[in-house]
Design goal:
Its EC number is 2.4.2.3. GO terms for molecular function: purine-nucleoside phosphorylase activity. Belongs to the PNP/UDP phosphorylase family. The protein is an alpha/beta fold. The chain has one domain: Rossmann fold. The chain has eight helices and nine strands. Strand 7, helix 5 and strand 8 form a beta-alpha-beta unit. Helix 2 packs parallel to helix 6. The longest helix has 15 residues.
Length: 232
């Protein structure tokens, strides 16, 4: 076991889905997996391994923000030999044409986080998705007739920003939406030469003010889960 994950070696599959919410991880396992087995309850960050369409796959919550997802992904990669990390998260739209419940593939992640500034001595690093996972996700979505949007997303260290209108400076440059984890996930994956992809469902809109409930975010974003599971 690692510091934050109580699983034994071999308990976690090479492909893992990573929702921020541990209760979404529990829902995914109970809804989509055959014979799910819980491998982690430390800090209430539920993790499960089960079978989907004959293939072994895992799911585990990561919490909110770059520091949290960075800790869990580092341990999953270095202690449990995970090779494919697929974030299945919620996001806030920055664009009029990106609507509630739309699915977004994150090609790259801009950020206001200081983590990579520290890591790269003040230089900018551009965290990007794994091409093979990205391409396969597009193919899966086409086969399932699930519409997608793809592009740059913004990973923020702040959820409640003082300046609500600040999103507009990012939207002008084509950024589709905001989350709090993707830049961290893509950076850690690149560091360890493994594959990562973020699939997001729009849960709220900074443009229109629309939003979904916490329960809806936990249990109704099925289409992105179906895409992610096929990548296993």
């Amino acid at each position: 076991m690692s510091l934050h994950i109580e699983a034994k070696k071999g308990d976690i599959a090479e492909t893992i889905l990573l929702p921020g919410d541990p209760l979404r991880a529990k829902w995914i396992a109970e809804t989509f997996f055959e014979n799910p087995v819980c491998f982690n309850k430390i800090r209430g960050m539920y993790g499960y391994t089960g079978i989907y369409n004959g293939k072994r796959v895992s799911v585990m919550g990561t919490g909110m923000g770059i520091p949290s997802i960075s800790i869990y992904t580092h341990e999953l990669i270095t202690e449990y030999n995970v090779k494919n990390l697929i974030r299945v998260g919620s996001a806030g739209s920055y664009q009029k044409h990106v609507n509630i419940r739309d699915i977004v593939l994150a090609m790259a992640a801009s950020s206001n986080s200081g983590v990579n500034k520290l890591r790269f001595s003040g230089a900018d690093y551009a965290p990007t998705a794994n091409f093979d996972l990205f391409q396969k996700a597009i193919e899966v979505a086409k086969n399932k007739n699930i519409p997608l949007k793809a592009g740059n997303v913004f990973t923020s260290d702040e959820f409640y920003e003082d300046d609500f209108e600040s999103y507009k400076k990012w939207s002008k440059f084509g950024v589709l939406c905001v989350d709090m984890e993707t830049a961290g996930l893509y950076t850690i994956a690149a560091k360890h030469s493994v594959s990562a992809l973020t699939i997001l469902t729009i849960s709220d809109s900074l443009v229109t003010g629309e939003h979904t409930t916490s329960k809806e975010r936990e249990t109704t974003f099925k289409e992105m889960i179906e895409i992610a599971l096929e990548l296993a």
